[in-house]
Amino acid sequence: MINDTNKIVLLFLTLKYEDVKVIIVEDEKPAARRLSRMLNSLGIKTHQMLHSVKEASNWFLNNPHPDLILLDIQLSDGLSFELFENIDINSAVIFTTAYDEYALKAFKLNSIDYLLKPIDEDELKVAVDKYKANFQTKSLQGLDINQLKKILINPIEKNYKKRFTVKVGQHLKMISIDEIICFFSENKGSYIHTIEGRKFLIDDSLEQLETKIDLDKFFRINRKYFINIETIEDIISYSNSRLKIKLQNCTADDLIVSREKVKAFKNWLE
């Protein structure tokens, strides 16, 4: 007998790329054609190719929206972000661009991935696989999407710390995890930095925190810092292929994503 879990997995595995309706928005026609050929090699047929903000706006206003958009950011007549300001687009998006300064804004939209040109075929396949894993499952009928996500993505429910108890003088103070901008180490001690701009010493080391806090919410950008995704104000390209982070109400200037963690950090942002 097939139980609910097996049913979900079987349906998930039967999803096919050829069922995906895809459009490409790219102002350079040779690049658009190359991208279409790369999709075709993955078994995906391009439904439409559009080449400007104006053309894309008109198309989205007059046609059913696709499942997936491969979207260049800098088009001949402006930034493609304008589409989201004027039209309610529910399609999944893979951004394709020659620039990385728009990464933070892109990740706040329905983006699956942020591919830098020239597009690598393997990276494109990984991005499309992400779409299949995270978006196509929503179209399965007769299944609860929240249950589906729990089974496929996070089958084991973990109990993460909800608060920390710190000592303030002769008193103990409880600090909610939602009040914490970051955890950091300094002079062999570990601290929390709160949204109020206060810092408190805690007992746990950063290594111990890795098993106690939700790593979907916090990321260890280097040996010194764990940062909260909800408090990121800006992400800046930095020397030696690293990234510099600005957090709310935090003036630290050494919030640098180490080079070896950049790829994992970008994946975490999704």
How would you describe the overall organization of this protein?
With 270 residues, the chain is α/β, with parallel strands linked by helices. It has 2 domains: 4-152, Response regulator (Rossmann fold); 163-269, LytTr DNA-binding domain (OB fold (Dihydrolipoamide Acetyltransferase, E2P), Beta Barrel), CATH 2.40.50.1020. Helix content is 29%, strand content 30%. It has 9 helices and 17 strands. It has helices at 4-13, 29-41, 53-62, 81-86, 103-107, 121-134, 145-152, 206-209, 262-269, and strands at 22-25, 46-50, 68-72, 74-75, 78-79, 92-97, 111-116, 163-168, 171-176, 180-186, 189-194, 199-202, 218-220, 225-228, 232-238, 242-247, 256-257. The strands form 5 sheets. The chain has a 5-stranded parallel sheet with strand order 2-1-3-6-7. The chain has a 5-stranded antiparallel sheet with strand order 12-11-10-14-13, with no helix packed on it. It has a 3-stranded antiparallel sheet with strand order 15-16-17, with no helix packed on it. 24% of the residues are buried.
Please summarize what this structure is.
By secondary structure, this protein is α/β, with parallel strands linked by helices.
